[in-house]
Design goal:
The chain has 233 residues and is mainly α. It contains six helices and two strands; from the N terminus they run ααβαααβα.
């Protein structure tokens, strides 16, 4: 189990935590049982296909999401190429359990990824330095993750924001790591990332970026496998 000693607090909105647990439940059929959780999400009609506003829209949007996540890796890796960064380069982790058994399981797990990403990025905004080099990128990535999450939540007949909350909340590092842990066989020689959630500093900027990079690596690989499986690319 991945763990972090980043000193994070429990989420202020416990409903968000139960939402993530429930959306991961189906995906966790081939993953550790620790991801299973309780809750009562709105019923999803049994359909042979996902709902779709326009013909071919889902294919286009899932390919767009995959392209976004791949770009996020490149953006974060570029920010880490800095003489002031003393962290070792993060290798791509060895992954497992990526392929989902059906398209609904895929979308449920994808929603958990994207809601997690939006919450973690939101938390990082409190800790990253307010400079032109880092803050605009972090804010921009946060909103893209949130756009992805809203689309996927709607596909699952869920509120655009979990529990209809009008103000989103951040997600602790420990919760984020617990969501990607079932998909990680090992870190391929890398270390478990963590960052200070409250005190901004030059070193902490790189620790935040390194943390987000691991999430994006897992998320991108997850989309690569399942977008190709269910949407042909």
């Amino acid at each position: 189990m991945l763990k972090t000693d980043g000193g994070t607090e429990e989420p202020r909105n416990p409903g968000r935590r139960s939402f993530f647990r429930n959306t991961l439940a189906v995906a966790a059929a081939t993953a550790p049982a620790a991801l299973m959780g309780a809750g009562k999400p709105r019923a999803i009609p049994r359909r042979p296909r996902l709902p779709e506003l326009y013909p071919g829209e889902n294919v286009t949007l899932f390919q767009e999401i995959l392209a976004d996540e791949s770009a996020h890796i490149e953006i974060l890796q570029t920010l880490l190429v800095d003489d002031a960064n003393t962290l070792p380069s993060r290798p791509t982790p060895n992954l497992r359990n990526l392929a989902q058994p059906d398209v609904l399981s895929f979308v449920r797990a994808a929603a958990a990824f994207e809601n997690t990403g939006a919450g973690v990025y939101a938390g990082a905004l409190f800790a990253i330095q307010q400079t032109e080099e880092y803050f605009p990128v972090a804010a921009g990535l946060t909103t893209v993750e949130a756009r992805h999450a809203g689309f996927l939540n709607a596909l699952l007949n869920q509120p655009l924001v979990p529990d209809f909350f009008p103000v989103d909340t951040s997600i602790p590092q420990s919760i984020a790591l617990s969501h990607i842990d079932p998909f990680i066989h090992d870190l391929n020689g890398g270390t478990v990332p963590s960052f200070d959630p409250a005190v901004a500093s030059d070193p902490n900027n790189f620790r935040i970026i390194d943390f987000l990079l691991l999430l994006e690596m897992v998320e991108t690989a997850f989309y690569q496998v399942n977008v190709a499986k269910f949407f042909g690319g």
